[in-house]
Amino acid sequence: MNVKNITGVLVGVTSILALYFIIKQNFNVAILFITLMFTVTNTFRAKDFKDKGYEKEAKWMRGMAIFFGIATLAILVVNFM
């Protein structure tokens, strides 16, 4: 599998899980999957920008991926510890 397929599967799974938990009205878990989805998309977008030579944009996307990664960990700690 190539990177685009893996990205698509991960984004699709996290989106479906977020939607499922929104319907179930379990918003804490839904927010967890939404931030995880943002982490995945920004990580792969940063890699794609870097491969295309857009260093400034890649740096910004990497920063956003790190922010959402930390937010995901914070939500895990707050909700499940």
TrEMBL record:
<feature type="transmembrane region" description="Helical">
    <location>
        <begin position="29"/>
        <end position="48"/>
    </location>
</feature>
<feature type="transmembrane region" description="Helical">
    <location>
        <begin position="7"/>
        <end position="23"/>
    </location>
</feature>
<keyword id="KW-1133">Transmembrane helix</keyword>
<keyword id="KW-0472">Membrane</keyword>
<feature type="transmembrane region" description="Helical">
    <location>
        <begin position="60"/>
        <end position="80"/>
    </location>
</feature>
<keyword id="KW-0812">Transmembrane</keyword>
<protein>
    <recommendedName>
        <fullName>Aspartyl/asparaginyl-tRNA synthetase</fullName>
    </recommendedName>
</protein>
